[in-house]
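1st attempt posting a full record on here, be nice pls
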Amino acid sequence: MNKIPVITIDGPAASGKTSVSRELAQRFSWSWVSTGAFYRGIAFVALKQNVDLNDEAALIKIVNSDLWEVCMSPDRTQFLYNNQDVTDEIYKEEMGSAASQIGQHQKLRRSLLEAQRNCVSKVEGLVAEGRDCGTVVFPDADVKIYLTAKSENRAKRRADEQGASFEEMAKAQKRRDKDDQTRVAAPLQVPENAHVVDTSDMDLQQVVEHVDSIVRAELKI
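the predicted structure (as C-alpha cells):
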C-alpha cells in the first residue's frame, strides 16, 4: 500500500499559511486541513458552554464530547457545533486569541492529536497548515514548509482581511506571537528539515509558485 503524501505548512499568524496551503491542495487535488481550526473550535465551544479557558480538564471533556466535528472540504476546514456550521465564527480575531490561550495546555494538545492525525485517513494526499503541523502533528511529513514574514507585513495583511485597524491588529498579533512562541506545549518553531520561505516581499501567487516548485522537487513529480 503506497504511503499517503503529507505536506505541512507552518508559520506565525498572517504569514500566508491558509491561502498558500489551500491553493496548493487544489493544485494537487488533495485534501486540505487547518489544524488551528481545532483549537479555535474548541475555544468557541468552551465559551458557548461557559467553560473557563484555563480549566484544562473541562476543555478535554469538550474534546472528547460529541458537541463538535471537523469536516474537510476543498477550500476550508469546517467546524460544526451541535451540527451547525460555525466556521465563520471561529475565524474571527478574538477566537484566535482564545485558541492561543487554550493552546497553552499540554494535555489538551495531546488529546486533539488523534483527531488531527486522523485527517490523513481515506485521502489521496493531505496538505496540513498550522503552527505545529511539521513539528508535532505530522513530524514525518514528506515535505515541510515554514512561511514567515515581517511583523508589519503580517499585521497589514490581517487588518486588510478583516477591515480592522492596523494598530490594533499589530498589537493583537504581537501578543499572539509571544504566546505561540513561549508556550511550553508545542511552541511555534521551524520544523526540522523544513524549507523556510519569507513571504514579506512576495504576493500570493509568487509564494504558491515557489512552494509548488519545492513540493514537486521533493516528491519528484
